[in-house]
């Protein structure tokens, strides 16, 4: 999880997601807020629903040095409703970990094979470029 708190904001915004090992590197797959449009969407290689709380758009995953990730202890959250939301998201992600990892690896391979030749590949981050930038930033991406 990452965090970011803006001035006059009650809670820090937690960048919740899952750290995955893809192509030997640590990737962060962020959660996004669940929106009305997601009700009609079906899970697929680059999109997974996390209950009715959030979604994971694996096409937005990016490599990150683990040293830049901060574990957030949900039990220490002071706002009960925010704590409940974080806890629910965490439980569901934990139950989906195997599927998320399988989809992430498949999507990564698909993007590497297809470049920008398909609509799905075009939706994906440029994983190769992001890996280069991650390595530039930290000297190595996997700690």
Automatic annotation (TrEMBL):
Keywords: Membrane, Transmembrane, Transmembrane helix
Gene Ontology molecular function: RNA binding; RNA endonuclease activity
Signal peptide positions (record): none
Gene3D superfamilies in the record: 3.10.129.130
Pfam families, per the entry: ToxN_toxin
TM stretches of this protein: 15-34
The protein's name: Protein AbiQ
